[in-house]
Amino acid sequence: MADITKGVRAFTIGTAISRVFGLVRESVFAYLYGAGRSTDAFVAAFRIPNLLRDLFAETALSAAFVPVLTAERQKSKEQQNLLASNVFNILIITVGVIVVLGIVLAPYLVKILAFGFGNIPNKQALTASLTVVMFPFLLFVALAAWAMGYLNTEREFFVPSAAPAFFNIVSFAVPLFSFAYLVRTGTDPIYAMAYGVLIGGLTQFIIQVPFLFTKGFHYHLYVNFKDPKLRAILTLFVPVALGLAASRINVAVDTLLISFLEERSMTWLNYAFRIMHLPLGLFGVAVGTVALPAISQYVTEKKFDAARATLFDSLQLVFFLTVTTSIIIAFLGFPITRLIYERGRFTPFDTYATTQALMLYIIGVPFIAGIRNVAAVFYAYRDAKTPMYASFFAVGLHVVMSLGLMRVIGFRAFPLATTVASFTNLAILMHQLPKKIGSFEISPLVDYFVRLVIASIIGGFAGILLTKLFTALLGVSLSAQILGLGLSGFAALAICYAACILLGVTEARDYIKRLFRR
Questions:
Q1: How confident is the model at residue 496 (pLDDT cuts 50, 70, 90)?
Q2: Where are the chain's structural domains?
Q3: Do 514 and 357 touch, CB atoms closer than 8 A?
């Protein structure tokens, strides 16, 4: 069995750097723009190229690219580089065409996906204009994901996980330096956010290029749509893409439905979603990303027992990291949201609404993280159809729940539906898992998960009580919030760890040692 904790540590450190700057970016956005017509338009416009992001970027490309590239790496470096060059060139051609079409069709896409914006003067026009600016971001992030896939195959996890930090830095630096100028010239300053996203996406790719060459990559001007290895990638890619297309359709439907709700709903959900991605990106994505090449190598070498053991270890690790942090964040959701966003044009009411969405989103993080890890096994076995079918069912459930609840609980229906659908998706994959890898005991994982939840709730209660105490003692100034929340969060994690030991979750001690071991 591979010890994936070293790779997880490198990926998590890189992601942590990126997420810190991501929170700075969101804080800057909230300060400059608050929540309103322009921010709703920006969120909707950014979602349109992002509908295709998972297909041509991180998720689908990595799931299909890494297993096949790993097999080519076993043969020779030249074979690996030839395949990588072919994929790179074909990405530029195909995604480039899609970008051009997206720019031309932007007004029509906005009228479909943000139909409700038509009730507000000029909101659809602004959304379409922002979409045109940001659509090339899709190509840049696809190339960044290709670079990440190559580096992950070389077991380099820090650089690709830290690369989004440069996207975040650029995307908030551009608005900071251009906001006042755009206001003076009579231009809606929301365009600064759009240009920041565009330039930041390009930076995220460029920053990885030097490390590709240090890992032995040599570019070939080679395009072969009939290459058997490319077909092997497409065999995996198409079902993964179809499964993700279902989830992207889900996002499109959400965008359409949310556009009919009260103004600012889309912005509140977006801000909550960004915080939710902190534990998911730091831990959930990290473990799944590192586990995929390890499990793929074991499957290639026909070491199936080692593949099963690595999966079980990765699931225990990802649950240990995400259950504890997610539940504690749920308890501390209000002070976290207030600290990150509540300044400038972002009001206390915005904080309250965003916190509600955050709490419903965050409890689904362990399930989303679990999906990435279990799906990695199916991809390693070159089976992308099972995750696709599970995704279709989960998306259908999400849409039904959203439609049924949006008139009852408003914007809260969407994060609740996301969490329930994620749990259902994971349950389906776990049920199908033994058919793929043989005997796999699920009951020990369920028992382990429940004990983690109990320990995390104990830590969360302690954290919120301490936060109230520190607020009473220190006040609500920015420095007092940072100090009080930092101390409360650290204490909550420490108490959660102690509760894990008392409840017999001995793996907690082992994972802490492995994660901090040199």
A1: very high
A2: 5-324+345-439
A3: no
